[in-house]
Amino acid sequence: xxxxxxxxxxxxxxxxxxxxxxxxxxxxxxxxxxxxxxxxxxxxxxxxxxxxxxxxxxxxxxxxxxxxxxxxxxxxxxxxxxxxxxxxxxxxxxxxxxxxxxxxxxxxxxxxxxxxxxxxxxxxxxxxxxxxxxxxxxxxxxxxxxxxxxxxxxxxxxxxxxxxxxxxxxxxxxxxxxxxxxxxxxxxxxxxxxxxxxxxxxxxxxxxxxxxxxxxxxxxxxxxxxxxxxxxxxxxxxxxxxx
Length: 243
Known about the structure:
Blueprint: E1 4-8, E2 11-14, H1 15-34, H2 45-67, H3 69-74, H4 89-106, H5 111-136, H6 153-172, H7 180-196, H8 212-242
Antiparallel strand pairs: 1-2
């Protein structure tokens, strides 16, 4: 673990925060660069990504605090302390999704198209952020049976998310209907998260031997796959009628 990168006098720079910020910066730059290819006005991209970041951080922290209400009821001053991590991705996902869709509706942007553009780079930002988890020591895995060392689930997740980024980025060039890439991200990520949870050692089994994240993953997978199938059927019907 290397939670602190360096100190400058009274200022402490934490590796987790640096990697999250780096992931956001890289994703924003990539989305901004590719926006014209999706016929999306670049003037809205930075605002959209900042809204995703701020609302995502709020949702991620809120979800984590709710999951650990006993600790934060006794230590309320710790709620705003993010130096040790304490963010739940699904909280970030749902808060960021809702706020960004509302913003895009306000700006009359094509939400499905913008989400298709952003989806691969969301996975890329997550991959970079997971490296921050590894350096920080959070989101750790189960203890190995012999050596007692923890399984480096953070690095496994980072590698899986990097692969997901590559898949989605290639898929972007072969998409058929709006929303295809984003829904693909939702399905693939939820499947990855469900499987990865079996190796996590920090999340308690809450429902029938599954973690809360696994329950959410199942729901998100089913929902995204259902919507994907519905939209694919509509696309095929439209294509057959046009020919």
